[in-house]
Amino acid sequence: MTAKSAAAAARATVYGHPRQGPNRELKKAVEGYWKGRVGADDLHRTAAALRRSTWRQLADAGLHEVPTGDFSYYDHVLDTTVMVGAIPARHRAAVEADALDGYFAMARGTQEVAPLEMTKWFDTNYHYLVPELGPDTVFAADSAKQVGELREALALGLTARPVLVGPVTYLLLAKPAPGVAPGFDPLTLLDRLLPVYAEVLADLRAAGAAWVQLDEPALVQDRSPAELNAAARAYRELGALTDRPKLLVASYFDRLGEALPVLAKAPVEGLALDFTGPAAAHLDALAAVGGLPGKRLVAGVVDGRNIWINDLERSLSVLGTLLGLADRVDVAASCSLLHVPLDASAEPDIAPQIARWLAFARQKTDEIVTLARGLAHGTHAIAAELAANRADLASRAASPLTRDPSVRARTDAVTAADTRRSAPYAERTLAQRARLNLPPLPTTTIGSFPQTGELRTARADLRAGRIGAAEYERRIEAEVREVIAFQEKAGIDVLVHGEPERGDMVQYFAERLTGYLATRHGWVQSYGTRYVRPPILAGDISRPEPMTVRWTTYAQSLTARPVKGMLTGPVTMLAWSFVRDDQPLADTARQVALALREEVNDLEAAGTSVIQVDEPALRETLPLRAADRPGYLAWATEAFRLTTGGVLPGTQIHTHMCYAEFGDIVQAIDDLDADVISLEAARSHMHIARELADHGYPREAGPGVYDIHSPRVPSAAEAAALLRKGLEAIPAERLWVNPDCGLKTRAWPEVRASLENLVTAAREIRDDL
Ligand code: GLN
Ligand code: ZN
What we know:
- The protein folds into two domains: 6-398, Alpha-Beta Barrel (TIM Barrel), CATH 3.20.20.210; 423-453 and 485-503 and 549-572 and 583-768, TIM Barrel.
- It is built from 29 helices and 20 strands.
- The longest helix is centred in the N-terminal third of the chain and has 22 residues, at 40-61.
- Helix content is 44%, strand content 12%.
- By secondary structure, the chain is an alpha/beta fold.
- It is globular.
- It binds glutamine (GLN) and zinc ion (ZN).
- Glutamine is lined by residues 446-448, 499, 505, 566, 614, 616, 656, 658, 741-742, 744.
- Its EC number is 2.1.1.14.
- Zn(2+) binds at residues 656, 658, 680, 741.
- Its cofactor is Zn(2+).
């Protein structure tokens, strides 16, 4: 095909869509089903109606091909587990008794059986359920969901393309089932899995699918030659099938790198590639492999992970270059629209001129359609859209929100000295010991105490105007008094105020920093029926006034023991927000760090001797490709040091991390130059203590000895055993005693008993020293 005819054929599509519905109908129906208030038939009807209205809306917006099969009651990786029949042994009885209840049993567990493990979907904040496979796994095709949803869309008269998790990614995301040797490599099951995919593909073709999309995002990570070979074999075999639809192999979240030539050579009819962020490298890489002659290229030029309007002219120029490199070029978002909220036009709190800079799923769909039209018919066909887009981009670039000269002056004035404490750790620790006078193995907690029903009611009452600020603060103070009194009685050494004033550790600060926007309906699926509303880093960041000092000093006024100030760190503030796309992340991090630094300094000036800056997300935003990691870690650790670098040697800086294995970032943890770190460790039996020791980590550390993700109360003996294990790696004068993470999701009775046991364990070991 010539470039001209390739352009004329340009089509618009997406790989997936938010599932919950405009008013979170799906969440309500699924949770209603769990509580027994909604019947299975009603749930299915609600779901089918949501799918229909989504497809209609996509088609009405001008999308030529709608995705099917991306819908899910809980998670699309779990749906894939069902599709290939890889039901774990412990869930089989439940699935056989009732498919829907069995499905939710795998997702959430029951009294009798544990759920599948949940983990993050690449570097997004979406969580999937990890397949559990072993040498005995027998796959069996179950195409009912995929075929059913395809038929629904075809019945509406639409062109539909089923979207499946590809076989290689499915296996690469899996882990050895419980009881299987940990060395087992799920990828060895590929030969058994491919016939199942072949069967599903044949069923989809029989049901009317012309194309099927197989998602292989795992191929954008660094892959071994054996893994690349497996990918080559998978698509050679699937490509060689005779009874199959055309295959579109999709990748997203980063560049394919060495997997690009593998897929380019595979006997499939199309590739879908990301052209945003670091994946923009695909442009040159495609040319280097000689393009995709004879293939369909779906170009993800609209960022599917962020909420900013597209630069339509720039995208058109990328698309124009691609025309020469493939047989046909279609336009899409870089990944499923699952990762953005539904509709930016529904945000009453965002000023109209700023709302024009935002594109959620609906607006992105319009952008994709516009780009496809521009590609097919020329820029004159979209002249009005281009003019409006140009004006909106210009207004964003020139806005005082995005360019605050005083913030720019402050960030420009940052020197290397600002990112260093005034004394080295070895000196600081002496000053801190003299000031704090703590026993060996000091006890503390990570910050939050249970978020009780009363606290949630107080927040709701405040929001609805049923109570005023004064009454709200009175209720928070009462909670702080209770939290302090409990900790004193339990004998904890370094206290916290309990964070009762925070609904969310990022949102709380975002609401108090200039430059951040909050949405009212910007819900994004985190996992299952849990949705979050990430704030938006829209402009230059500054702190109009102190954010936490009032609560920390109030708590400190109630006790003679040190109360730890509690802040969310700059990297986590970025990781759990939508970030700016008009400047490097490092610049945004530096602005946030400077605002937090003012808070740290104010806490110190108010007499706070211990300040914790949480960075639970430091590991999770690590770039997918190893080559990009040193650059990320350099700015991330610098932002932390800029936040904490302004305090006196005698002020003790803590940090906290969870949700990950930290073995590969111990050097970065060391580079934070914090005085004390608390880490999630209870489930891994103090493994991290050993890793810190092997690295020669010189500072104080509190590997968690109470797994707060479970209602279980650890006994004093159990906590003491873990501490003894910790002592094998970390000497007594540097070991802290604390839970794994904050206690906000737990109930008071468990928290009381567990913390009392922790104190008992610490005292027992101190007596032995
Ligand atoms: N300080 C926070 C808390 O205790 C830390 C939470 C986290 O690490 N996710 O809730
Ligand atoms: Zn944590």
